[in-house]
Amino acid sequence: MNYSESFRMSLRSLSANKLRSSLTMLGIIIGTGAVIALLSVGEGAQMAISEQIQSIGSNLIMVFAGQVNQGPNAPRIQVEPLTRADAEALANPMDVPHLIAVAPAVERGATVTYQDESVSVNVTGTTPEFEQVRNLPTELGQYFSAGEESGGARVAVLYWGTAENLFGEPELALDETVRINRVAFRVIGILEEQDAQGFGGGDNGVIIPLTTLQRKLFSSGQAKGGGRVDIIYASAIDENSIDAAMNEITWLMRDRHDIQFGEDDFTVASQEQILSIFDQITNVFTIFLGAIAAISLLVGGIGIMNIMLVSVTERTREIGIRKAVGAKRADILFQFLIESMVLSVVGGLIGIAFGWGVAAIVNTLDSFTTHVSAQSVLLAVSFSLVVGLFFGIYPASRAANLHPIEALRYE
Questions:
Q1: d(CA 231, CA 65)
Q2: Beta strand 138-141 pairing with 183-191
């Protein structure tokens, strides 16, 4: 069997019908490009979420009321709300030695106004430790002090985006007075600019002292719950201390809530656990996108099989002549398989460029960043090769099995 001659004959046959060959490859081009483009979106989303979760705080641990992993048949547990006293207990190094900072927080939606400008944002009432625990340093000005927090001072730290929306230039916000739900606050700090698509609120929000929020903004809702808080943020000493800190938090909270093992009315979650959950979600999302795109490749493969069957019919006499002069079954089979594979490979290579181009266009929009990995390219190309081989086998076998005498009679 002369492989090089079979390859040249296949190319001549395909080039004789350039338009038909191009239209046949179109399905593979679109399918391969769609696989690469959609997988790049999924991987880009996974990377963006991972970066944002990792940026919300070093060695972050979160405690909130209720159990998020309860099944439908789990026994109902009366949930006791978290309080500021819980946070103060967690901040005691004698009880939880593997924590370096604790910040309770209450988060509420509110309208912030400055002169004629107003924005609806999330207002976080917390303590000065929030800066360290959540890794949110100020670009301008400073955080409120412990004395301002305990005294219920009406001071505010603005996110960069909020300051920009209200003042145009964030620098102009310092020492100005804004109104949060009509209550006046003096701006004492502006946070460093955050990713606008960031995890946990992006670049819009306001941070005020917890005592101020509870007494002067949402006093009616807090009066019933005393020092109730929505969530407690904590930071472990280092990465190796996270598990030990979580165990210490769990046992202390059980003791404070007077509950036993298996009756937890709270959840302790680390940054790593949250990242793992989001990784699982984005992996499923990426696989789902890839599966949708793979359908296009299957359609392209069906197109290849259809055209190859037409080609076999058109070239029946040619097949008969080749067999009459000594061509073997394997020679005919290999020639038509090569034609199918050439259509698939060329279409796959063009599809790679197409998918890469789509990903690049998405990146120019500045709203989302895609990531084209070598694995996605290899997957798309491999799948297109398999499709070309699979859908080329039947037409090639049909051509190879033609009887030479019947083929020569064909008109």
A1: 7
A2: antiparallel
Question: If you ran DSSP here, which 8-state letter would residue 171 be given?
Answer: G
Residues of the chain under the 50 pLDDT cut: 72, 74, 197-200, 221, 223-225
What are the sequence ranges of the domains in the chain?
Answer: 3-52+277-409, 80-264
Residue 143, SS3 per DSSP:
coil
CA atoms within 13 Å, Cβ hemisphere of 255: 11
Q: For residue range 312-332, what is the model confidence (pLDDT) as tens digits?
A: 776 676 767 766 777 677 777
Tell me the residue type at 40. S
> Which two tokens mark 61?
């641990």
Can you tell me the distance from the alpha carbon of 365 to that of 330, in angstroms, rounded to the nearest whole number? 52
| Tokens, residue 203 | 């670049």
How far apart (Å, rounded) are the C-alpha atoms in residues 306 and 28?
A: 14
Q: Is 321 exposed, middle or buried (0-12, 13-18, 19+ CB in 10 A)?
A: middle
- pLDDT at position 135: 85
pTM, entire model:
0.63
Residue 185 sits at φ, ψ, to 5 deg, of -135, 140
Q: How far apart are CA 54 and CA 339, in angstroms?
A: 50
Q: How far apart are CA 158 and CA 160, in angstroms?
A: 6
The CA R_g of the chain, rounded to the nearest whole Å, is: 33
Q: What confidence score (pLDDT) does residue 51 get?
A: 67
- How far does Cα 346 stand from its chain's mean position? 31
Beta bridge partners of 190: 140, 158
* Residue carrying the six token digits 């390219």: 377
Q: Are 125 and 110 a contacting pair, CB within 8 Å?
A: no
Which helix (H) or strand (E) segment holds residue 53: the answer is: helix 18-55
Amino acid at 171: E
Q: Report how far residue 125's alpha carbon sits from residue 150's, in angstroms, rounded to the nearest whole number.
A: 12
Judged by DSSP in three states, 402 sits in coil
Residue with tokens 């641990």: 61
Q: Tell me how far CA of residue 138 lies from CA of 110, 130, 156, 189, in angstroms.
A: 22, 12, 12, 6
Strand pairing category for 206-209 and 117-126: parallel
